[in-house]
Amino acid sequence: MNSEREREIALKQWVGEVLQQPVTLTRRSGDAGFRRYYNIADAFALLAVDAPPATENTRQFLNVAELLRTCGVAVPQVAAVDLEQGFVLVESFGRREFGAELDGDNALMLYGEALFTLLAIAQAPADAAVLPVFDEAFIRRELGLFSEWFVGPLLGLTLSADEVAMLDSVFGRLVARALAQPQVVMHRDFHSRNLLVKADGSLGVIDFQDAVVGPVTYDLASLLRDCYVRLPPAEVRRWALAYGDMALDAGIMTRTSADDFLCDFDWMGLQRHIKVLGIFARLHLRDGKSNYLPDLPRVIGYVQEVADLYPELQDFAAWFRARIVPACEAQSWYCPQPPFDVDVRSLL
């Protein structure tokens, strides 16, 4: 059972057996992974999920779901599962994505809810027997995607030995800063498309199966410097510091200066966005998922914004501006970005 069509037929049969009635499945838009989601006619509260065992770890999905649920995080309930086939029947939270719901009037409420949800995740037991560790090797693998997929295959650039050495030095600084932070349970993709506004207005969390134990600011950077929604920089910093205070009160952080915390946050976000440039390029080139290309300019903007702030990153900032940005601007997918996507200036 290898083809997508064969798996869809088998999934339909399995769901029908579980629900004890004939069913009609309708494919939903996919995500960046290999999972496929289907609406079930006459069963609006459920989703059918095809998670091919060759690429998706359904058992880990179940383990992380249980871990988060016990900490009060709203994750989908599992109605049925077939681990051998990679089929799951889960609760549907609807389709009201956090990012699509945002406006200047509700941003404070929604981000407040998201920060409290993030705090609950960070307070979950960081059990290395359940979750992988976001260690140096893990972080460097992610950073390697930048050269492997973005710089070469997408932009058509070849790096010199000096450029490779410069990047290796910068990446080493980012790794060291990440590992020096408090290590907590980390969703690893905590952004506006993985937060759903439920019917009662509360937030549901999805796409958590790749959770790890890692730096306390990683998910915060994913949320506040979202690859799909850009906030005013003043709001980003205000909410980042508010979360730092929450984490301190919760006992998952020790007291540090605002500047040090913001540096942790900025550098962690830089690591993530350098990685994301590689991932979005790979999705386009390897997987035929080109719908992420329009989001690249926003991520490029984040990289420039943060690198420009720190003296230790000036070599990288100058190189990125001179070498990478012009190559990006020559691409068909590139277009200048507005300073922010959601106008929340009324909250300042």
Number of domains: 2
> First CA to last CA: what distance?
55 Å
CATH topology call of the largest domain: Aminoglycoside 3'-phosphotransferase, Chain: A, domain 2
Average per-residue pLDDT, rounded, comes to 94
How would you sum up this structure, described in words?
- It is built from 11 helices and 9 strands.
- It is α+β, with helices and mostly antiparallel strands and 348 residues long.
- The strands form 3 sheets. It has a 5-stranded antiparallel beta sheet, covered by helices on one side. A two-stranded antiparallel sheet has the order 6-9. The chain has a two-stranded antiparallel ribbon with strand order 7-8.
Task: Quickly describe the structure.
The chain is α+β, with helices and mostly antiparallel strands and 348 residues long. The protein folds into two domains: 4-91, Phosphorylase Kinase, domain 1; 98-347, Alpha-Beta Complex (Aminoglycoside 3'-phosphotransferase, Chain: A, domain 2), CATH 3.90.1200. 48% of the residues lie in helices and 11% in strands.
